[in-house]
Specification:
This protein is α+β, with helices and mostly antiparallel strands. The chain folds into four domains: 122 residues, no CATH class; 46 residues, no CATH class; 115 residues, no CATH class; 83 residues. 32% of the residues lie in helices and 30% in strands. It is built from 13 helices and 19 strands. A six-stranded antiparallel β-sheet has the order 1-15-16-17-18-19. It has a five-stranded antiparallel β-sheet with strand order 10-7-6-11-12. Strands 2-13-14 form a three-stranded antiparallel β-sheet. It is elongated, with a radius of gyration of 29 Å.
Length: 423
């Protein structure tokens, strides 16, 4: 159900930083205040005349500014504010149909189910009737709206906030139902109704959005629902800073990179003779996806995770925490690798050495692994382990497996010398 859509991908540092800057420019935060909104009322009398002003909370979608000079117009404005502003104009829409004829400008006419949190449907006779609204979009806007087919709709300003696939985990937490979008493609109306009903008791909703480049801000795709303390930061600046930091230790180059709505991921190659070292930088964009730096090396096309540093979203990302112990992890691996090249692995200790791989591989695969005939030389042993366990796993188990290889290497060195600690 959940999809990660690639926005840009490529290789090379210059193109990467250029694309990150473009994404930074269109990634913004917005919010809507739904309930408990306050207003400031100012009355001023001068020279026998009454001057008044009503200013409602400066939330982006619910602004109201009115002025006047008479008590009658003042009371009228108060009534208008009560019905138009303090009531919720924030609705949920769900895709129903694409209408047959485009506009002369080429816009695509569509029809959407319109779900008001306070009146999701009306009773007509013995039938429940769902209101609809007709909206037209450009090609780019239509594609954004159709990604999930569900959007928030600011009726007062006619702005749509479609949910991207990346936003569904945080939206699920927002409505206290993580399984709501399980059958989204088959039945989007159900999740849309659930989403609308949850808006009734919410005072404020904060969005992390990614605007469509070059388009009017009529359709603003949502990457994530975020907390009020969430602070955005520049992906370009973080990547550039990290590359500068690692260049102090190694000759490094950007190998490949990918930018999705969920994260920016960069694979950096380190030029170390005799080894295939690398660093992966992953900067989450949506809420719940932190900044992560992973040191890895490759043996027989298999990645081994040596060290991983993670920091949560903050306005000022502590780069030193991301670099911490990364160079040392490569040095430790090289010492272990050199040690194993001169040692033989005791056969009776192989089950103990391979134990870190049991959980990610599962019981059956692990039992089969123990029956495998391994070479005795330490380097050949580890190379063979990486080769025969390079199987397809889900994301969580794959990560555990890659980290498990490093633990196996440590166990192998300890077994060779019959000691409890190495280094």
């Amino acid at each position: 159900m959940r999809k990660t859509i690639t926005i840009f991908q490529g290789s090379g540092k210059e193109e990467l930083l250029k694309r990150l800057a473009e994404i930074d420019d269109i990634t913004t935060i917005d919010n809507v205040v739904l309930n408990n909104q306050s207003a400031e009322i100012i009355l001023h009398r001068a020279e026998g005349k009454l001057y008044w002003k009503v200013a409602v909370d400066d939330a982006p979608f619910q602004r109201l500014r009115k002025r006047g000079k008479t008590m009658k117009s003042f009371l009228s404005a108060l009534n208008t504010a009560e019905t138009e502003t303090f009531g919720s104009n924030f609705l949920v829409i769900c895709y129903q149909d694409t209408l047959p004829k485009r506009t002369p400008e080429g816009a695509i006419p569509t029809r959407w189910c319109l779900i008001d949190p306070y009146e999701p449907y009306v009773i007509e006779g013995e039938k429940c009737v769902i209101k609809t609204v007709d909206l037209t979009f450009t090609e780019e806007e239509f594609m954004a709206m159709m990604e999930t087919g569900i959007a928030f709709y600011d009726a007062a300003n006619e702005v749509c906030y479609p949910l991207k696939y990346e936003s569904l985990p945080t939206v699920g937490r927002f409505i206290d139902c993580n399984t709501a979008f399980k059958d989204l493609e088959d039945c989007p109306l159900g999740p849309a109704f659930l989403l609308a009903t949850r808006l009734v008791n919410k005072n404020e909703v904060n969005f992390l959005m990614q605007d469509i480049p070059g388009a009017e801000k009529k359709v603003r795709p949502i990457l994530s629902i975020i907390g009020k303390n969430y602070m955005p930061f520049s992906h370009e600046k973080i990547v550039e800073t990290l590359l500068d930091e690692f260049s102090k230790y190694y000759v490094c180059s950007v190998d490949t990179w990918e930018i999705t709505g969920e994260a920016s991921t960069v694979s950096v190659h380190l030029l170390v003779p005799g080894y295939n070292h690398g660093i992966q930088i992953s900067i989450g964009r949506a809420s719940g996806h932190p900044v992560r730096v992973t040191a890895f090396t490759r043996i027989s096309e298999t990645e081994i995770y040596l060290q991983e540093n993670t920091v949560p979203h903050k306005k000022d990302v502590p780069v030193h925490m991301l670099v911490k112990e990364i160079p040392e992890s490569f040095t430790l691996f090289e010492r272990q690798w050199e040690t194993l090249s001169k040692q033989e692995i005791p056969k009776e200790l192989i089950p103990q050495i391979l134990m870190p791989l049991q959980k990610p591989l599962g019981k059956k695969r692990f039992e089969k692994l123990l029956q495998h005939s391994f070479p005795q030389n330490g380097l050949d042993f580890m190379t063979e382990v990486c080769k025969v366990t390079n199987v397809r796993l889900n994301k969580k188990e794959e990560k555990l497996l890659k980290a498990g290889y490093a633990a196996c290497m440590k166990q192998a060195v300890l077994a060779c010398f019959n000691v409890k600690e190495f280094w």
